[in-house]
Amino acid sequence: MSPSRIPCWFVPLILSVTILASTAAYGGHHHLSVSYYDKTCPSAQSIVQAVMASRVAADQAIAPAVLRLFFHDCFVNGCDASVLLDDATPFVESEKDAEPNDSLRGFDVIDEIKSHLEHSCPATVSCADILALASRDAVALLGGPTWNVQLGRKDSRGADRDAAENDLPSPHENVTSLITKFAEYGLDARDMAALSGAHTVGTARCLHYKDRVYGNDGEGGADMDPSFAELRRRTCQAGDDAAVPFDEQTPMRFDNAYYKDLVARRGLLTSDQALYGCGGPLDHLVEMYSKDGKAFAKDFARAMVKMGSIPPPPGMPVEVRLKCSMVNY
């Protein structure tokens, strides 16, 4: 059986098994607290907000870029800022060199925030917490929800390029694989459906959606609007790096248009459209989010807090880095 053609009847079984497993998978950082820096660096959140507001005003694309950094960090050994480390660090094979991370950007924004914080509160605010705060502000600056960020993460003293190659959800994943990968980090199917809504902003390259638009003998998959498939094939004529927005209607507004596209069979990636079309709980969630933007915003904010609590593995050496791209010496 082709992994991209899992029968719909199989999805409820996967849902029931992985939701049960996810409830015990991760307990989060027990020490995280919204007030973690209230005494040691009371200006931390305002500094992050100010830099993000300035950078997004100059280039809105920075917001989805920073949000993507946070996702790619948390799905590799927890939210520990390992994705920010350069190869220049001894004994570190940078996660930046992993294929799924080859188009990541926004590192300079995190470095700028860190520089301001080191000036105001030296050796206090972790790069992992900066990523969590900057992601919240990125969403809010594009009109999305805001939430209270739990703080107190530490930065890892190493990176894991192999895990970055293998653990990050792929744009080519089917729904059962997605559910399983999210469950490994304590995130259930509802979390997965809500977090996938981050694709209501940002872009993807032809490299990651051409298998979908050229499938079914070059006509696009059966779960794809034929006119949309043809439109995207024309884009791909410019090459694998040709990028298009996930949501063409409001590409830089954090709204529920992503789900409307899924219902219309206009999801860009295989892993996007995988959320809709099999019936059952996931279809109901997608349909609800497509009609009720407030319900999506609420679930997204809740899921971001939950994802942001994924801890590094027990025993991993951690610190508060003085520079986000390298460990302390």
Written overview of the protein:
By secondary structure, the protein is mainly alpha-helical. It has 2 domains: 162 residues, Orthogonal Bundle (Peroxidase, domain 2), CATH 1.10.420.10; 138 residues, Peroxidase, domain 1. The chain is 47% helix and 3% strand. It contains 15 helices and 4 strands. The strands form 2 sheets. Strands 1-4 form a two-stranded antiparallel ribbon. Helix 1 runs parallel beside helix 7, helix 2 packs antiparallel against helix 4 and helix 8 crosses helix 15. The chain starts with 9 loop residues before the first helix and ends in a 10-residue tail after the last strand. The N terminus is likely disordered. Pfam families: peroxidase (PF00141).
Helix content: 40-55%
Question: What is the first-to-last residue Cα distance?
Answer: 51 Å
Average pLDDT over all residues: 90
Strand content: under 5%
**Strand order, sheet with most strands:** 1-4
Radius of gyration, taken over Cα atoms and rounded to an integer in Å: 19 Å
Number of H/I helices: 15
Q: What sort of overall outline do the alpha carbons produce when their principal axes are compared? A: globular
Count of individual beta strands: 4
CATH topology of the largest domain: Peroxidase, domain 2
Question: How many structural domains are formed by the residues?
Answer: 2
How does the major sheet shape up? 2 strands, antiparallel
- CATH homologous superfamily name of the largest domain? Peroxidase, domain 2
The string of secondary-structure elements, in order, is HHHHHEHHHEHHHEHHHHE
Structural class: mainly alpha
Q: What is the level 1 CATH name of the largest domain? A: Mainly Alpha
Please mark out the parts with pLDDT under 50 across 5 or more consecutive residues, or reply none. 1-6, 16-29
